[in-house]
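hiii so um. not sure if this is the right channel but i have a protein structure encoded as tokens and i wanna go backwards to a sequence. like what aa goes where. can anyone help
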């Protein structure tokens, strides 16, 4: 199994971004409002991928006038669905086609405070690097620390995502909680230790509930920060097997810096491939596959989506992940969509 086999399963790449936009927004899309799960409460109790998790968020930051954006302060509806899909090695196409393996390195752009995708996917790979602006660092660190044991254990519920009505009785100080209707409510976790100082937080070291070096958080501003191999955190890797992003594009101003960052991260692997290509000619090394970029999003504004897909398709061969490779909650007419890209400079689908 290789990138070629995955692309064969994906079908033809997108040729016309305007047509892609029209087809998606011509669907009978459900009303999702803005797409929060519940932006009023400070702790959500969720069942994701068969695991009961308690996720802290910040309604106060969301409603603030903070410069640079506040959307990462709360959990969005697509996030647990994407986390469930990405973290299923037996069905997710990135795993079944061996683009992702237990030795893989993943990076997430615009992770937000929840850490949900990392919590579910990190146990399946060697390292998962979360990135976002500094304001999310404290909560994402707390969420990973407090939920790692549950996330890395065997599932206690059927795979999928569920959130339910508020728990009966008085809410805790953190506010009303949401629980899974299929599972037993769990207690709101105690607050974790405060994040350390500096721009980098090494999640999992110093006895962080057994996470080891699996998960890291690095601050990243798409407009000002340089992408370098230091993002991997060492361990012998200088690039990533996959870049993932979940519901990161809310206005056209974000499109260029976001896509440019996706390109820059994928170029880390391109540089490694160029070096290994020379070594492979002498039989010393097999050339690694290109990085793949996976972008999941809610379908909100057609003009914003079209601006993104046009710009993304300039740099990446782009595929919409077909329904048969998705969980039911992400398929057509769900109001969500997942695209996959490979740098045009690194791969030619016509060569398959």
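sure thing!! here u go:
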């Amino acid at each position: 199994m290789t990138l070629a086999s995955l692309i064969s399963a994906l079908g033809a790449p997108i040729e016309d971004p305007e047509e892609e936009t029209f087809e998606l927004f011509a669907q009978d899309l459900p009303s999702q409002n803005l797409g929060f799960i519940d932006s009023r409460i400070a702790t959500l109790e969720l069942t994701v991928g068969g695991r009961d998790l308690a996720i802290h968020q910040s309604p106060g930051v969301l409603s603030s006038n903070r410069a640079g954006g506040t959307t990462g302060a709360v959990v969005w509806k697509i996030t647990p669905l994407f986390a469930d899909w990405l973290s299923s090695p037996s069905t997710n196409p990135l795993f079944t086609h061996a683009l992702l393996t237990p030795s893989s390195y993943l990076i997430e752009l615009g992770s937000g405070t929840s850490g949900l995708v990392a919590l579910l996917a990190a146990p399946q790979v060697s390292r998962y690097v979360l990135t976002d602006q500094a304001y999310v660092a404290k909560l994402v660190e707390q969420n990973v620390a407090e939920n790692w044991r549950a996330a890395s254990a065997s599932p206690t519920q059927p795979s999928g995502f569920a959130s339910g009505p508020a728990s009966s009785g008085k809410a805790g100080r953190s506010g009303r909680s949401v629980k899974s209707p299929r599972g037993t409510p769990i207690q709101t976790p105690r607050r974790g230790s405060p994040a350390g100082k500096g721009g980098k937080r090494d999640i999992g070291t110093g006895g962080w509930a057994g996470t080891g070096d699996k998960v890291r958080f690095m601050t990243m501003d798409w407009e000002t920060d340089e992408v370098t191999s230091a993002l991997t955190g060492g361990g012998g890797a200088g690039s990533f097997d996959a870049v993932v992003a979940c519901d990161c594009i809310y206005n056209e101003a974000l499109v260029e810096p976001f896509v440019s960052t996706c390109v820059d991260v994928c170029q880390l692997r391109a540089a490694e491939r160029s070096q290994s290509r020379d070594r492979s000619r002498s039989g010393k090394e097999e050339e690694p596959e290109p990085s793949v970029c996976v972008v999941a999003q809610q379908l909100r504004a057609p003009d914003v989506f079209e601006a993104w897909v046009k710009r993304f398709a300039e740099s990446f061969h782009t595929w919409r992940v077909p329904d048969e490779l998705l969980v039911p909650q992400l398929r057509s007419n769900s109001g969500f969509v997942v695209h996959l890209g490979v740098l045009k400079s690194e791969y030619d689908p016509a060569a398959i």
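oh and The first helix runs from residue 3 to 10.
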